[in-house]
Amino acid sequence: MTRTIGIDFSFTHPVDVSDTVHTLIKGGMTPLCDGALLYLIDEDGLFNWQKTSPSTLAEVLTEMGNCRWADRTVGMSLLFPGAERDIGGDLLFHPGRTCLSYAITINAKRLPNSIFCDMGWYLQRLVPSLEPLGLSEVETQDSP
User: Fold this and answer.
1) Which residue, 87, 84, 92, is CA-closest to 121?
2) DSSP secondary structure string, 34-74?
3) 7, 92 in Cβ contact below 8 A?
4) SS3 call for 133
5) What is the structure's pLDDT at 2?
6) Could you give the 3-state DSSP secondary structure of residue 140?
7) Are residues 78 and 31 in contact, defined by beta-carbon separation less than 8 angstroms?
8) Cβ atoms of residues 141 and 22 within 8 Å
9) Is residue 143 helix, strand or coil?
10) How many CB atoms lie within 10 A of CB 128?
11) Distance (Å, whole) CA 55 – CA 36
12) How far, in Å, CA of 140 to CA of 88, rounded?
């Protein structure tokens, strides 16, 4: 069974892609997924993810934040490093940059003895980093 698990964040004003990603990295996340950087610049509505070297992080963030993509979705896989395995998913910056989504797609942390995601665990790690950026609303979803 495939589930849709995610968190939507709304902000009082547009957020900067590079600043937001760097804030989350400082908060404990990593942009590395199996040693690579995974990112998206959705030019054509097909969500064609790209894989590149971690050494290109600055260049990728600069391109994702370029004003020519302001009306397109851009994103990056961001994970929480774990002792046994990394968990996390994809951070998507929606057009206008006042809404972000975190799609939990990699080793979702579940509530004990449950099929449901432990949303509180993710919120405790994401909200403190995002709130200073003007976070105004949070919505979670866990559905089949």
Assistant:
1) 87
2) TTEEEEEE-SSSS---EEE-GGGHHHHHHHHT-GGGTTS-E
3) no
4) helix
5) 73
6) strand
7) yes
8) no
9) strand
10) 12
11) 9
12) 14
pLDDT at residue number 65: 96
Q: Choose among 100, 90, 83: nearest CA to 20.
A: 100
DSSP 15: P
Write out the two tokens for 62: 């600069």
What is the reported pLDDT for 1?
55
Distance from CA of residue 3 to its chain's centroid?
Answer: 17
Specify the residue for token string 């992080």: 57
Phi, psi dihedrals of residue 136, rounded to the nearest 5° = -120, -15
Across 23-56, b (16+ Cβ under 10 Å) vs e yields bbeeeebbbbbeeebbbbbbeeeeeeeeeeeeee
Give me the tens of pLDDT residue by residue for the chain, a chain 144 residues long: 578 999 999 999 999 999 999 999 999 999 999 899 999 999 888 888 999 999 999 999 999 999 999 999 999 999 999 867 899 999 999 999 999 999 999 999 999 999 999 999 999 999 999 999 999 999 999 998
Q: Which of 55, 76, 54 lies closest to 65, judged by CA?
A: 76
